[in-house]
Each structure stands twice: as structure tokens, then as C-alpha cells.
Amino acid sequence: MPVIDTWYASLNKPFFNPPSWVFAPAWIILYVMMGIAAFLVWKKAAGFGWKDNQIAVALIIFDIQLMLNLLWSVLFFGWQSPFFAFLEIILLWFAILVTILKFKKIEKRAAYLMIPYLLWVSFAAVLNYSIMVLN
Prior knowledge:
84% of the residues lie in helices and 0% in strands. The protein is mostly helical. The two termini are 21 Å apart.
């Protein structure tokens, strides 16, 4: 992504900003864990024939947080707006938390698989805020 090599590279970053190579493996691991979590919840629906509304709601909230995840990249890198990205990442954080709470009622392992994602987004929010303040 050219904007990372130009715009993002030129930003002032806090001392705790991880090296660039950390992001790809971290996100790969997190997306695999999210996919397994969603699958575990979806698999429960097979047993209920989608009659259990709480499963459908949990998966819809999961989809919403996934869209918010994508939107953060658009706002931060596409619009080059740490401010709007920070506002959005707060919504993302809450959507992940609600997803975890909904998943926990259906399949505890799915909820536990989402916790590292919440922690990473918490770190990303602090990093986003710091970049916003420094620039």
C-alpha cells in the first residue's frame, strides 16, 4: 500500500509503535481466530436450524464489527484521518465486546478466541490516539 510508505511513514509515532513487520502476522493470526470463533457459533446454528435467534444476532454483530474493522483502515489510511479513525475504533471496540458477550452465551470457546482481538484493538486505539495527538 503506497500510502503506508509515504503518508504513514512520515507521521510522528509514539515510542511503543511496533515495527511494520509485526502487523501482517498479528492480523493473520487474529483473522484465523475470528474465523474459527464465528465458525463455532455458526456450527451451533446447524443444530438449531437457525431457529435460535440469539445465534443469528451474534453473527450479525460479528459481521458489523468486521465491517467496522475494514472502515478503520479506510478512515486511517484512505482518508488519512487519525481523528475519524480514532472515533471509529471506539465503536469497533464496543462492537467486539458485544460480539464476545453474545458468543459467550452460545459457545464459550468462541468468546475466548475473540479476546486477543479485543486486546489488539485496545492497543491499536491507544496507538491511534497517540498518533493523532503527535500529529
